[in-house]
Amino acid sequence: MTTVYLNGRYVPEAEALIPANDRGFIFGDGIYEVVRAIAGRLFEWEGHAERLANGLAGLRIEAGALASSATLRTVCERLLAANDLTTGEATIYLQVTRGAAKRVHAFPPAGTVPTVYAIASRFVPDRAMRADGATAITYPDLRWARCDLKTVNLLGPVLARQAAAEAGSYEAILHRDGWVTEGAATTVFVVRDGVLHTTPLSTAVLPSITRTVVLACAASLGVPVHEAATALADLPSVEELMVVGTTTDVQPIVALDGRPIADGRPGPVTRRLQAAYTERLYG
Ligand SMILES: Cc1ncc(COP(=O)(O)O)c(C=O)c1O
User: Fold this and answer.
1) 33 lines ligand 1 (CB under 6 A)
2) Would you list the DSSP string of 75-114?
3) Has 150 been annotated as catalytic?
4) What are the pLDDT digits (tens) for 208-243?
């Protein structure tokens, strides 16, 4: 039986009930995070907590101490302990919505209490896929103009990942106006002319925590980096392609839209970044 956290209480999952008029359900009016835990240690907690706080501020959800970094860190640690997840690997999903209120688009009355929910789950990385590489498709970026906020509105990624699944692929690489933005649930890195490229941060992409770690790995390895988007037209001919994320690590992409990238095997820069990232994750 899974124990989850809801609004200050640790309860069996089946008892974690929210009102049907919760604004997360009605409007997608909320922010979420996914955090990785290794042997009970939260990986890059500060980055996740800061992004969550920025997202809440961006939506003007005033959760205060209910969703402070200290509160949520304690919630994560207690959920790991309560669910026997202090050994091995786990993920923790955190969600904060503007709370339950009569369905009116504008903000609810002052005093409406945000809903705070969290669940910890066993996580087993797909080591064979990390080693061998995965495939991806390209897909239009259908999302809104504030993709820097990690909101629970995920219809663009849902449709993109479904298209990927139907194509037998792991990820959908999104593009807008002829340029790669990011993956449906990952950040995209490519190697072009020996230089590692990734789309610069803006309101068009999520400020990925893994992106920051991978850039630090590149710096420590002396891999040259250029934060510049890749044209969709150039993507099939890049030297290396990879997607990164909290539950994806550094994942080589060896074929795109059914055609191999380079020789169809994970490239040397990808391998070096993978090794450096693995060291930081587990070290
Ligand atoms: C759209 C998008 N980009 C990038 C990422 C990777 O972010 P992170 O490294 O913080 O997991 C995610 C993760 O869910 C995502 O949804």
Assistant:
1) no
2) HHHHHHHHTT-SSSEEEEEEEEE--B--S-SSPPPTTPPP
3) yes
4) 999 999 999 999 999 999 999 999 999 999 999 999
